[in-house]
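Minutes, methods subgroup
Present: GH (chair), OT, SY

1. OT presented the first of two proteins processed in the latest run. Sequence and structure tokens recorded below as shown on screen.
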Amino acid sequence: MSDFNTFPPTPVVVQLSCSALELTPVRLGELPRLLTIVRPLADALNADPDWLALFSQHGNALLELLTLTTRRERAWIDDLPLDDAVQLAAAVFEVNADFFVGRVVPGIQRSADKLAPLIRNLGTAPSPA
């Protein structure tokens, strides 16, 4: 999504049956909680997720993820009709996909590539006397 190149990001408006909701990508301060929430369901996320399977297998995590990424109260999320929840979940992933796929994953890989030789050297360095 090219809007990541602008600051602040242009919100994506999702029209739900109850209201319109503006979504923006996650913020740095939200990242630790987001990663904790996403970890259990990361394997189920792909280009075309089965939302009903995600809700049935990781319902609480997905609801917490929607709470965090929409910046809405959990009660508001809990009261959504199922079709709105699925539409909202898809929009949240769309808004944040470029961030994770285009920036976070490559950044982590670059860091890992830089750290790997240092870690290998630590494992082979003689211990201090």
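2. SY then presented the second protein from the same run.
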Amino acid sequence: MTIENRINLVVDDPKREAIETNLTGLKTELSTLLIALSPKQKKDLPKLGEHMMDFVERSYEGVGKNPTLAPSYIKMDEVKLDMEAWKLLHSIARDLEQLVSMLNDTATLCGSEAYSSMLSFYNYIKQASKDGVPGAKPLYDGLKHYFPGTGNSKDKTKDNEE
């Protein structure tokens, strides 16, 4: 059986350092701007999504054209700042979400290929151990605890008798 190798990812030291430097820079720049909300705080807030940003912008324009209709407690300069900040942060978040999705997909594929190959090795030494191939049993015994409860009870009884 052949295991398809769909990725060979090598990150050399200069590339790794550049990634870490850029991530550190991004964290540094954003950490002075961002806040953290508790789950309850998030739940209690009304949410603005892309589909409602048009409403916010049209309402803002409406206030600009009809300032006497707006309640005095609404500070339009603060609304403008919030709108612009939301647009910027939402754009950054979308880019980061796409990047995180690709990072997770790539890590999943790398992990899957490594796991599939080593699972094939494990199954091979499991059979080799049963067949009495020299050196296979210690390897198998060192790895079988990762799969508790597998195998039939006859095998478990036989393992306990040895």
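Chair's summary of item 2: The longest helix spans residues 76-130.
Next meeting: continue with the remaining queue.
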